[in-house]
Amino acid sequence: MAKDKRSPEEHSIDPAAQQMLIRAEQLGLGTAFSRADDMAPCNIGSAGMCCKMCGMGPCRLTKDGQTGVCGATIDTIQARNLTRAIAAGAAAHSDHGRDMAFLLKAVANNEAEGYAIRDVAKLRTVAAHYHIYTENRSPQDIAKDLAELYISQFGQQHGQVAPIIRAPEKRQQLWKKRGVVPRGIDREVVEALHRTHIGDDQNAEHILEHAIRTALADGWGGSMMATDISDILFGTPAPLLGQANLGVLKKDMVNVVVHGHEPSLSEMIVAASQDPEIIAYARAAGANGVNLSGICCTANEILMRQGIPAAGNFLHQELAILTGAVEAMVVDVQCIMQALVGLAQNFHTRIITTSPKVQIKGALHIEFDEHKALTVAKQILKAAIDNFKNRGETHIPDVREDLIPGFSHEYINYMLGGTYRASFRPLNDAIMTGRIRGVAAIVGCNNPRSSQDYLHTKVVRELLRQDVLIVQTGCGAIASAKLGLLLGEAGLDQVGPGLREVCETVGIPPVLHMGSCVDNSRILTVLTQMVEEGGLGDDIDQIPAVGLAPEWMSEKALAIGTYCVASGAYVIFGGSSPVSGMPDRVADSDIVARYISEGWEKAYGGKLEFVPDPDEMIRRTLAHIDKKRAALGLPAYDPTRFGRSGDARMLELEKLPLAERQAALYGMSNR
Length: 671
Hints:
By secondary structure, this protein is an alpha/beta fold. Helix content is 49%, strand content 9%. The protein has 4 domains: 8-60, no CATH class; 74-234, Substrate Binding Domain Of Dnak, Chain:A, Domain 2 (Up-down Bundle); 242-390, Rossmann fold (3-Layer(aba) Sandwich), CATH 3.40.50; 404-574 and 611-639, Rossmann fold (3-Layer(aba) Sandwich), CATH 3.40.50. The protein is built from 28 helices and 16 strands. It has a 6-stranded parallel β-sheet. The protein has a 6-stranded parallel β-sheet with strand order 13-12-11-14-15-16, sandwiched between helices. The radius of gyration is 25 Å and the shape is globular.
């Protein structure tokens, strides 16, 4: 039976989203939020206890000792289901990397209209990792070699995927010892599907070892390559000012929302929107120009490089259409709701699909081709502009927040140490002294079964108060942005005293926006550089750090979580567990859940746990950070030791009479 209907305030903590949900109710239109209320999930399937791998089933295991028709036990079934989900997530992110590698090759061969190599320094740095000769060679020649190397990683059958060498040396040796170093990206995904076919691998732990290998092919393979190439072609992100939420839509302009995950399309639409031809075309249609904004990870891509505003995260895609102000929503791959087309039919919005891999019945399909990218981008924008005359009544929430995105690992390195001594030393020192208690990466999706953004922002806010530095990617980053947490000012009133000192000294917000979900590879790079800097152990599993995905919903999130565990991280997912089982009804239904926690921790130093309660997420995060601090011999966290220097201390002094202030300043100068 479906649960009771929730109110807009229960569906989302975002005031802009609440306004649009009220409008949806008034118009009698459904959204993902209302559909989640209407659709009760299958408790057997959601617990991972249903097998549909062959035509003899589906088999639902709900009793002690019960097996599938083939004899498969509950732990085998759960391990197969989880591994298949991880393989699908790894395939999605890695396929993104494949497309970017082909684009890099086309650009190097001068075959991609409108693109160029924007960050030659990054190209040379990445090429040097793989001993590609760079001296006295043109960027195009270097790019050709790098593109060929990256393309070869997908079909490679033996050896190891190239970016593995960028992990800490001790971690590489552990992977080799356990036999989980990926040989080739496609090979591991294919083998995951083979192993989980009827009548194949029937040992849960053995199956899950290959899940590790498949996930590593994503995190230290396809995703890392995708991030590298995006930086090379579109520029390595650095901090700039942006805005987020539905209030970024403009009443007097043609609103085009780009949604999906591939920056090759969105970056070219940004370029086309600034072309005098397109601007003149829009003005001839009665608009003041074209206003671009993003949804989901495409939003993060163009936000952190071009400052294009984010209209919202995953659950905002339908809400943007409900404003009545969107002429076109341009989508490529991943996280695109099929419901968009039906909803758009109630307004004037055109849904335009662009990827050869994705079509939606009823949408306009304009296929993107990087060889004529600018031409296609202009065609898409002209279709949107032609639709401006059909706009009716608009309801744009006057809700938007400023934010500072664009903290690539290169920029973090620079901001900590400066131009001539770029280094992670100040970050490591801040953790070692206790000014920063630890680091948390809070990433992942929105899920309409929880209150949109609530879990993300509750965890972020509490960890900030506990002096935990936050790095964010994907929809989680946009959740924080919409609440104003990605600004430096947040450090003055929402952050613990030690972290506040660091933020004031360096001039950074306490929440660092690091990009899209594929850019979680940047977090791996940061952790590796922290290890290499010294003082926090010799491998990632020793760093006081935790990864969290409070509102996960995608198979990609499972792949990300698994490659982070394999890298040595403790990872906490909110929401429901796909391997929760029914311990009260089936004695062995928690075998897999225990193995991906206790078993993986013993093997890799990292573990994966599903914790629905946010307070418990926070408690476990802090307990893990403190445990790692103790293991390193670092001082116990004590917030009373810090907070009386920097800007905070100066603000205190300003309240004193002049004589007392001068005496205090004199005393400080003589310490």
